[in-house]
Specification:
alpha/beta
């Protein structure tokens, strides 16, 4: 079974890559779930930006370079990129449209933006929101939920067209919660009888500037 990282890498084209939100909340060296590590192993030039200077320092201590503390809604770099990747980032932003504007301005002609974000209507999030109502989101840092149609409308409004989209199954087995692990293992076990629109919990969008 391909991971979210595998699916993202299928669409990344180089040589110049920008990873927005590169620390992924927690810097986890040699983790199969750390996207920036995979990008750095595959491409010669990968630039990373993140809002956490503490996490960026941890990455620098591991030998990673070309790292900058910048906000995703207002970042400004003196170069353009062939691919910009934003994994599980857009749901944290106060104004995702500002991020899309900045991303478009930093793409080379023919460049692409790859966005992944939780799929709100997956079984995982539907069950959580009903069991925990009115606490309908498990992550206190999330500020918005997007679905397939709202993501399409948002990206089109900010100058992108959709090259590809899909629902991806992304259950991370390093999660400390036994309840989550039980759910994830159950979904993995019965994945071939659970409809894709219910079992897959992440949206993957590959966008190009219009």
């Amino acid at each position: 079974m391909k991971t979210r990282e595998d699916r993202i890498l299928e669409w990344v084209k180089g040589p110049n890559i920008l990873d927005v939100g590169c620390t992924d909340h927690i810097v986890r060296e040699n983790s199969v779930y750390w996207l920036h590590q995979h990008l750095s192993q595959k491409f010669a030039r990968v630039v990373g930006i993140d809002i956490s200077e503490e996490n960026l320092e941890k990455m620098r201590a591991l030998g990673y370079k070309n790292l900058y503390r910048m906000d995703a809604e207002s970042f400004s770099l003196e170069e353009k990129f062939d691919t910009i990747v934003a994994g599980e980032l857009i749901e944290h932003l106060s104004n995702p449209g500002l991020f899309l504007n900045q991303a478009r301005s930093h793409l080379n002609p023919g460049g692409r933006l790859i966005v992944t974000t939780p799929y709100v209507f997956s079984l995982l999030y539907v069950l959580y929101s009903n069991l925990k109502f009115p606490k309908t989101c498990e992550n206190p840092e999330h500020t918005n939920w997007l679905c397939i149609e709202t993501m399409r409308r948002l990206s089109k409004r900010h100058g992108f067209h959709e090259l590809y989209s899909d629902l991806v199954m992304d259950y991370r087995l390093d999660n400390p919660s036994w309840k989550y692990l039980f759910f994830a293992q159950t979904v993995n076990l019965f994945q071939f009888v659970i409809p894709k629109r219910l079992r897959n919990n992440v949206m993957l969008f590959v966008l190009e500037a219009s």
